[in-house]
Amino acid sequence: MATGKLTIDLDALTTNWRSLAGMSAGETGAVVKANGYGLGIERVARALARAGAGRFFVAVAEEGADLRHALGPGPEINVMSGHMPGDTDMIADLALTPMINSFPQLLRHVEALPGAPFGIQLDTGMNRLGMEPGEWAAVREIAVAQNPTLIMSHLACADEPNHDMNQQQLRQFIEMTEGLSIPRSLAATGGILLGKDYHFDLTRPGVGLFGGRPFDLASAVVSLDLPVIQVRDLEPGETVGYGNSWTASTPTRVATVSGGYADGIHRILSNTGQFHFGDTPCPILGRVSMDLIGVDVTHLDEDPAELTLIGEHQGVDDIADMAGTIGYEILTSLGARYNRRYIGG
Ligand SMILES: *Cc1c(COP(=O)(O)O)cnc(C)c1O
Q1: 10-210: CATH superfamily
Q2: In 52, 80, 288, 335, which residue has its Cα 20 to 30 A from 119's Cα atom?
Q3: Could you tell me what percent of the chain has a pLDDT over 70?
Q4: What top-level class would CATH report for the domain 222-343?
């Protein structure tokens, strides 16, 4: 078998949820958009539900439908894109709760599904989703009369604790929700770490559950091992891979591992990233191909059967740093070809 082995530790996942829940002032939900940050929404959400999560967030109604099938009735499933054209049947049949982002969405929802639950999303400065102060002031009374289940907003800079934007958005959120007795939610992972002022009634961690920054105390959830298909010796002057971008200056032993940019191993790691064999780093040689990568194993005492890209010595955020991106993007790029193994849970 030449497929990489992606191991997802559901015990680490639920440990992370419990840690974040322990820090949160009120209830703690779970954000499982984008197929549970690439790790498989069904297994991830079921493990979180067993750990005690009762409220889930997804980006779009279709994800909510998959999640409802995984979880069955009971847990609340909030859809952050709100109520879009074409969503009505899914929202009704699968008991989804749209987070309404605008007056047109509010009208669509109450006209199509009178009495059906919904929440409100407010924009407190990120300029991405939700009603802005002016629109909210105009519709607040009408919206509140329909008994929304939740009012939420999202922080733009929560991973930078000293950023002025945090307090600015906090003040704006308080001002826009003053005097209402509807549960409120402002904090994702970063917001939880900012402290209790930001927690309100419900927190919504995502990336921290999956072991990512800025939750530095997280347990690692993901590991990725790729099988070595072939090992060969190069003479000085020989090259590796497309474009001859790496040339041996000394005798070199090169392992060809099964995995490439089609599996979410970013091409920018060509000639810069590294794998590990046990504790020993093994540099990537040449370009990352679609399905294959050359790795330097000259310094090892034995030919490895597999090499580790994500593991004890190198986490998701380390790969992100090497690739010039963030852990979120590494997680959600994890390929569909991997043999996914779930442990614990
Ligand atoms: C993605 C997202 C979250 C979760 O954010 P993390 O940084 O992954 O914890 C929470 N709320 C909203 C609105 C989001 O888009």
Answers
A1: Alanine racemase (3.20.20.10)
A2: 52
A3: 100
A4: mainly beta
